């Protein structure tokens, strides 16, 4: 089986916004966007949400997507902004990302940054910091994934870069019925991808709409 | 995490029929029902169909269900009719089910029958034959599953028995737009389960409708 590069459970507003504008992130506000938490509510309500600590949660359609989060994933690629809000050279190697002592990734994670720093491990997750173009980072991640797929974790800018380079095999984007107006947009409309991808649009009883893409 | 008993990718017609009437099965016609193959077409079209041997296939909504087939499954329970068409005492131990030399289950499988026979292994699948009530078989399957979930593979009669015993935690039933008229019915209407289960009904672009149930 081919190793796929998969975008999964990527959340945007009805107007395509997935994060605040560059510079609006902070330690207190990881998404740099008032109301961003409304984009994730659907996932937190499911039984299989990776960050869930209590029993319960729904086991319907939305749960089929959160439970697919880790299936056959051997590595993740993320932009620096998904790791932390800092810009420029690292001032503090003691700060190890905003994912806590047990990050939900549980694989090698490749953080794209112009400012590499030493790799480190938290529980089952090892963070590597790489200054390279998307194709090179993907090659490293695929090697680390040992035959499994690679998840492209975001944020918006990172997903756009890999899409523009033609490297993404499948995308699962969750559109919430919330209009945010400003911020970084994944797309103006998901129609933009139809020249290169098949698309299915699946409304969920929870109110969100799942957009599924795979290569033509 | 609790070990669940899960029904997955279970196919019925628009009038609830999942197999031919008892006695209509044969070696040449495993479902004992003309047209039954139309109930499975949706699955065969997906990239993750466990029996797929060539590349290709869709990666949309339907594929999310076929790819969930083996996730966190440690054992399967099936009725005798899913193993073979014979009735009464086994006449021929050389015949080892109609799943071929590489059955798609890849776990221990517990076949419910009043006529036990010795266990045997084909590739990654070991078949055990048990003459016991549903609760007892489930206890054995959970032990064999080593902490993972158990899949209840069918057929119709077996699913009904476990439902009636209150043992099923989640169900995924795929309703095809095909009316079969005669045969074994899973239900008259899926409304019958609403006293005990949450339900979501999700139409797929392929034309089938996914019915998802989890305990109230």
What does this structure look like?
Two copies of one chain form a homodimer. Chain A is of the alpha/beta class and 216 residues long. Chain A has one domain (5-22, 34-50, 57-86, 100-209): 3-Layer(aba) Sandwich (Dihydrofolate Reductase, subunit A), CATH 3.40.430.10. Helix content of chain A is 16%, strand content 29%. Chain A has helices at 41-44, 61-66, 80-83, 134-145, 156-164; strands spanning 5-13, 17-19, 73-79, 108-112, 120-122, 125-130, 149-154, 170-176, 184-185, 197-203, 209-215. Chain A has a nine-stranded mixed sheet. A two-stranded antiparallel sheet of chain A has the order 2-9. In chain A, strand 10 and strand 11 (209-215) form a beta hairpin. The longest helix of chain A has 12 residues, at 134-145. Chain A is globular and about 45 Å long. The relative contact order of chain A is 0.24.
Short account of what is shown:
Two copies of one chain form a homodimer. Chain A is built from five helices and eleven strands.
Overall outline of chain A:
globular
Q: Biggest chain pair contact, residues each? A: A-B, 21 and 21 residues
CATH superfamily of chain A, called what? Dihydrofolate Reductase, subunit A
In CATH, what is the class of chain A? Alpha Beta
The value of Rg of chain A in angstroms is 17 Å
